[in-house]
Specification:
Elements (H helix, E strand, L loop, with lengths): L1 H15 L37 E17 L8 E16 L8 E13 L25 E11 L4 E9 L14 H4 L3 E9 L3 E11 L9 E15 L2 E15 L10 E15 L4 E14 L8 E14 L3 E13 L25 E13 L5 E12 L4 E12 L2 E3 L2
Antiparallel strand pairs: 1-2, 1-16, 1-17, 2-3, 3-4, 4-5, 5-6, 6-7, 7-8, 8-9, 9-10, 10-11, 11-12, 12-13, 13-14, 14-15, 15-16
């Protein structure tokens, strides 16, 4: 708790010191399945007219997708995700100078996930995009959406309630991009800071609430993701850092449950260069796994290394991304990442792998429309395991649409 309060205090101090200026950065998120790279105006959602004092609109965020993951062997089963996500909501934005901030946004609506042919849906859709469906007969997967957001200044922002789905700029082994399509929206609290020399994202996602004498444990995820950056001539140098903790437990429960705490940590070095027609992002990260009390996982700790080269080719209304990377892991378990990078089998819990080596190639192309955003994305990925002489691959397409209708 003391460490968390210290991080929040540090973010608050950084927000007050927001007058430090530096060159704008060009972040690259090669695993984001939708091109949400536009920078919103200060204090407001990206479609809001900031010259007015208030704004009320009906926003409809939607995505139709078809993702085919052809996975083989005894690590993970292949699966297909055909469906759509629809998130209509009323958005109220206030531009008044408040005692505690520059602007306030309130959103209310619902989140609807539908997979073609699905007869029912699991209650929990979180870290696993294709879980076993043994706990629910729900034929409709509809969740409430309520988000309150305070913008303190152009650097610091606090969000409560529904947080949505985000990679939090986590590297590929720590975050499975399929979660952006089918996972329940994160919900809890998030504090973000974006400045010239540092970006920080601190969040808590509450997955399972328990009552007194509950028979199931509470579950939540806490995370910290960010980077420190500076410039050496035209090259941006950055130090990424990531920490994920997942807790399972609770007090005064009807049945005894072991308290489980699992952690992923990561840091490294990276360099970004804008060559005009292409952006280059070269990085190398070390990653660690550690757990306390989880007897279902045979590893107490593990590690991995992940060098990556990402190239982005932007055009006026389209963009191509190509990513080449390598993964080596020893006794490593990704908490929010794909089982492709795990040393533990998703099919047989007692089956482990001494080491995991993967050569990864990913490519995507995005076309965007005009004022009312509509984006078409094609993507393909290949994963080669040299120790097993095995190739895994996936491909898919998706259409994102975000119409906005101003009401007042």
């Amino acid at each position: 708790m003391k460490k968390t309060l210290g991080l929040i205090g540090l973010l608050g101090l950084m927000g007050l010191m927001g007058n430090v200026q530096a060159k704008p950065i060009q972040p690259i998120d090669p695993i984001q399945p939708i091109a949400a790279t536009a920078t919103p105006p200060p204090y407001a959602p990206d479609h809001v007219d900031t010259t007015v004092f208030s704004w009320l609109s009906l926003d409809i965020d939607g995505q139709v997708f078809f993702i085919d993951n052809e996975y083989f062997g005894n690590r993970i089963s292949g699966y297909t995700l055909p469906g759509f996500v629809l998130r209509p909501r009323l958005v109220l934005w206030k531009n008044h100078e408040l005692l505690w901030g520059k602007g306030f946004t309130l959103e209310g609506g619902f989140h609807w996930l539908h997979l073609w042919g699905a007869r029912n849906y699991p209650t929990l859709l979180s870290n696993n995009p294709w879980p076993a469906n043994t706990d629910s007969t729900n034929r409709l997967h509809l969740l409430p959406w309520l988000q309150a957001k305070i913008t303190f200044n152009e650097h610091l922002q606090l969000t409560l309630g529904s947080l949505g789905n985000s990679t939090h700029k986590l590297p590929l082994p720590l975050y499975n991009p399929d979660l952006l399509y089918v996972a329940n929206p994160e919900a809890g609290v998030e504090l973000t800071y974006e400045g010239g020399h540092a970006d920080v994202d601190l969040w808590v996602d509450w997955r399972e609430y328990i009552w007194n004498q509950s028979i199931v444990p509470e579950r939540f995820t806490a995370g910290l993701s960010g980077r420190l950056q500076t410039y050496l001539g035209d090259v941006q140098l950055y130090l990424p850092f990531h920490a994920i903790g997942q807790h399972e437990g609770g007090q005064n429960m009807a049945v005894s449950h072991r308290i489980n705490n699992n952690f992923n940590l990561s840091t490294g070095l990276g360099a970004f260069y804008d060559a005009g027609n292409v952006y280059f992002d070269l990085s190398c990260r070390m990653m660690w796994y550690n757990q306390r009390g989880n007897t279902a996982i045979p590893f107490t700790s593990g590690w991995g290394v992940y060098p990556e080269l990402n190239m982005r080719f932007p055009r006026e209304r389209s963009e191509t991304q190509v990513t080449l990377s390598y993964w080596y892991g020893k006794d490593f378990v990704p908490l929010m990442g794909s089982w492709l990078f795990s040393n533990l089998s998703a099919l047989t819990p007692t089956l482990t792998f001494d080491r995991t080596q993967v050569l990864i190639a990913k490519a995507s192309h995005i076309w965007t429309s005009g004022h009312q955003p509509c984006m078409l994305r094609l993507e393909a990925s290949g994963y080669y395991y040299p120790d097993e002489h095995r190739m895994q691959y996936s491909f898919g397409c998706s259409i994102l649409f975000k119409p906005t209708f101003r009401l007042k």
